[in-house]
Design goal:
Chain lengths: ~325, ~350
């Protein structure tokens, strides 16, 4: 095996797909000579040039619409919002145009666009650079939502995203770009809608995506020393969602916790609880728990933000209570 | 032209002098410059759009058509003049007032009418309706329920045309209501800097729903805004299909030759309300409406051709009969078509 970073894995996926498919155009801010704010396109500009790596001014609305339009006319387009936070400038294009065109055109127009952005809290960037919006997109029919947590998944899922015929939200986590992990050197793809069991266990099922997978795994390691066996499942794609994997685990453990960097209200965590209550209520021994961001904008000061976000100790504490209740 | 005069008559608000250079375009064609067959063809196309919309109005008022419709009556010379210069492979992005654009681009009347009826045989199988009508097989890339929503999309389609070297030109229709939006600014800026093969065809009908353009903006010359993007601009009267044809031809050729985008301001007017149900008289004077109706491009062309004796009344009667029969066929087709099967609701979702 070979270790590379999450950021490098994304670059590798892009390089392979851009070489394979000459119709791919990549649009965004600072993604050309600079190689991306998060180094997420490092080296590609030299290789593929100005035409295929289109640096734009600061115009998320326009550049997102341009990517969607290019995808309607025979290109495969990636638009990089860089910070997912900035996609709000372009939401009308994502929700009103990208998500609807394939359906409304009776399937006649394909919209192979990947809308890429980095979510979540990193280094106390403050509220406007730390949002975790994936549930909004999952709520919109017509969009697929991918939230990779490891370098291997980042590469395999990105390559799959670049072969779809309808829009994909590819949502990386800012704090994961420099994390390392095993990535096979040979070409591989990871299909959408297949969860990954990150750790097997028997006492409780913990569901998490993105950086929260790592928080959940840390908590599970702590709990293991206390004799509590947690199973950590990473759905990897929220749309489509691997409901079978989640339900299977819940039926095995009888307990469900969801860790989410977004607030609980109307979110991903509530959706997982709803799934379990609708389809596996008889299996639940105790009420399920959600360990989510508190319902406040991300504060700047580190102690405040730490208080607001899920941490391994908060997750471990919640699970202890569930198991010992 | 009397466009300024119409405004000036309503208020003392001065029409601003344009501070930028607008490219002079060819003068309105003299009758001898344009072949009579082309004139009759343009006439036939305009008449189809007009009669189609009046039929839609009738059917809508009778309760036959669901949803909402925004009719194109009065603006026919724009869609027809522009689209007569396009190939089937060229693309058109349209607006909420888009039935005329669809027909002008070649989408069959049957499919447009059936879509307005929500029928399975509509160009989108009834999934889209008036404001979400797509027919890519005719290069028609969608009406759009969001004002300005199509401008970035058209710009992107032009980027794809450039990257693929497809030879396509993309035309983006939008109204004066769209030009104060961020979509307009961001898209024109990108189209200019990348020299994209796109024509921004602004149908300035003076009102964004009920908001008079001169109340919405200080600079009421839309063409002058192109200077902000170092983009050439043209103006044309929407009352003269020969002019819309010639002016758009210049812009389309520029795009096709790789010389980048053009902004065209078509000075036009909708004879009816914003949507069917809006009388359109609360924010417009009767005199203003009548003055525009009196300069109807369809009547004007017929009068010109008859006066010059290039064609006879019999020719126009024949065109009317053909149009009637075409329209009747479209209505019959749509009326008798099946509804979509409800069990297919999740198909393509």
């Amino acid at each position: 095996m070979r270790e590379i970073t999450y950021g490098e894995a994304g670059v590798e996926a892009l390089r392979e797909e851009m070489a394979r498919d000459s119709s791919i155009v990549y649009i965004g801010q600072g993604i050309g000579p600079r190689g991306g704010n998060f180094r997420q396109t490092r080296g590609l500009w030299k290789e593929f040039g100005d035409h295929r790596l289109r640096d734009t001014g600061i115009c998320e609305l326009g550049e997102t619409g341009v990517a969607i339009g290019a995808a309607m006319n025979g290109c495969r387009a990636v638009v990089d919002e860089v910070f997912l936070d900035f996609i709000l400038e372009a939401m009308t294009q994502v929700i009103q145009q990208a998500a609807t065109i394939h359906y409304l055109s009776n399937g006649k127009i394909k919209v192979p666009v990947v809308i890429r952005g980095a979510m979540g809290s990193v280094r106390n960037a403050g509220a406007q650079h730390a949002h975790s919006f994936y549930a909004w997109f999952a709520h919109t029919p017509g969009l697929q939502v991918v939230v990779p947590s490891t370098p291997r998944d980042c590469k395999g899922l990105f390559k799959t995203a670049l072969r779809q015929e309808t829009p994909v939200l590819f949502i990386e986590h800012k704090a994961l770009y420099n994390t390392k992990g095993d990535v096979p050197p040979d070409e591989f793809l990871i299909p959408f809608g297949e969860a990954s069991v990150r750790r097997t266990g028997s006492d409780v099922t913990v569901i998490a995506v993105g950086r929260m997978v790592h928080i959940a795994l840390e908590a599970a390691a702590t709990l293991d020393k206390e004799g509590i066996s947690a199973e950590v499942i990473d759905p990897r794609t929220i749309v489509p969602l691997d409901t079978d994997a989640i339900l299977k685990s819940v039926r095995k453990t009888g307990k469900l916790a969801v860790v989410d960097e977004a607030p609980a209200m109307c979110g991903f965590s509530g959706e997982i609880l709803a799934l379990a209550s609708e389809q596996a209520l008889d299996s639940l021994d105790v009420p399920p728990r959600r360990i989510c961001a508190l319902h406040a904008p991300n504060p700047f000061s580190p102690p405040l933000e730490n208080q607001m976000l899920p941490t391994p100790s908060k997750v471990a504490q919640a699970i202890r209570q569930m198991v010992r209740s | 032209m009397s466009y300024d005069t119409v405004l000036d008559r309503r208020t003392a608000h001065p029409f601003p002098k344009i501070p930028f250079n607008i490219e002079p375009h060819m003068q309105t064609a003299t009758l001898s410059e344009m072949d009579v067959q082309l004139k009759l063809d343009l006439y036939r196309r305009m008449l189809k759009l007009r009669d189609f919309e009046l039929k839609v109005q009738e059917l809508y008022r009778a309760g036959s058509l669901p949803g909402f419709v925004h009719l194109y009556v009065g603006e026919e010379a724009v869609a027809v003049g522009v689209c007569a210069n396009l190939t089937k492979e060229d693309l058109v992005y349209s607006t909420h007032r888009g039935h005329g654009h669809a027909l002008a681009k070649g989408v069959p009347g049957r499919q447009v009418m059936a879509e307005l009826w929500g029928k399975e045989t509509g160009c989108c199988g009834g999934r889209g309706g008036s404001m979400h009508m797509f027919a890519p097989e005719y290069g028609f890339m969608g009406t759009n329920g969001i004002v300005g929503g199509g401008i970035p999309l058209a710009t992107g389609a032009a980027l794809a045309a450039q990257l693929r070297n497809s030879g396509q030109v993309v035309v983006c229709f939008f109204g004066d209501g769209a030009v104060n939006s961020g979509s307009f600014h961001e898209s024109l800026n990108m189209a200019a800097v990348w020299h994209l093969p796109v024509v921004f065809a602004c149908e300035n009908n003076l009102y964004a729903t009920e908001m008079a353009f001169r109340r919405a903006t200080k600079n009421t010359s839309i063409a002058s805004r192109a200077a902000a993007y170092a983009m050439p601009a043209l103006e044309a009267s929407g009352c003269d299909v020969q002019e819309t044809y010639r002016v758009s031809r210049e812009a389309i050729e520029r795009a096709r030759n790789g010389n980048g985008p053009t902004l065209i301001e078509f000075k036009t007017y909708r004879f009816l309300g914003h949507h069917e149900g809006d009388p359109g008289t609360e924010y417009r004077t009767k005199e203003e409406v009548e003055s525009w109706k009196s300069r109807c491009a369809i009547q004007a062309l017929r009068q010109k051709v008859l006066t010059s004796e290039e064609a006879s009344q019999q020719d126009f009667d024949r065109i009317q009969r053909e149009t009637d029969s075409w329209l009747e066929d479209a209505v019959q087709f749509a009326r008798s078509s099946p509804d979509p099967d409800p069990s297919t609701v999740l198909q393509f979702s």
